[in-house]
Design brief:
Structural class: mainly beta
Strand content: over 45%
Radius of gyration: 23 Å
């Protein structure tokens, strides 16, 4: 009796009765094991949007930055462990230590900016990353009067 060979993911066998697997060509993949053909690999990207590109805050009030993320396949990123806020310090992006909040009703991730500067929010999905930039400024109460 003939035994079928189940090829692992990203390998295929399109010849009945053959007991070997072929690698999918570059830019293609299989959806499951046991495939008989490869399909074009879907490139997933992450779209990042900030609520405001420029945020002006009062020095004695909380300054909140907001970002939301989705993939090119329509999946919303809602897991806080996939999201990070950073501040530009010199030429380095330093992660902001602190609890990033997520509001399910508005779909915004939020983080508090402690000082003026350039910030970014980034989200990852698989190997794809999306980033939005936010410039934060602070105005004292005296400057506003």
């Amino acid at each position: 009796s003939k035994v079928c060979l189940l090829c692992p993911k990203n390998k295929y066998n399109d010849e009945r009765g053959k007991r070997y697997c072929k690698n999918c060509p570059a830019g293609t993949e299989t959806e499951t094991t046991g495939a008989t053909k490869c399909k074009k690999k879907e490139v997933i990207t992450v779209k990042a949007v900030s609520a405001a590109r420029h945020v002006q805050c009062s020095t004695n009030k909380a300054c909140i930055m907001r970002c939301r993320f989705s993939t090119s396949t329509g999946i919303k990123i809602t897991n806080k462990s996939n999201v990070e806020f950073y501040k530009l310090v010199g030429s380095s992006w330093n992660p902001i230590a602190g609890p990033t909040a997520y509001n399910r009703q508005t779909d915004w991730f939020s983080e508090q900016a402690e000082t003026a500067g350039v910030y970014k929010c980034s989200a990852t999905y698989g190997s794809a990353t999306g980033t939005a930039w936010i410039e934060v400024g602070f105005t004292s109460q005296l400057e506003q009067e």
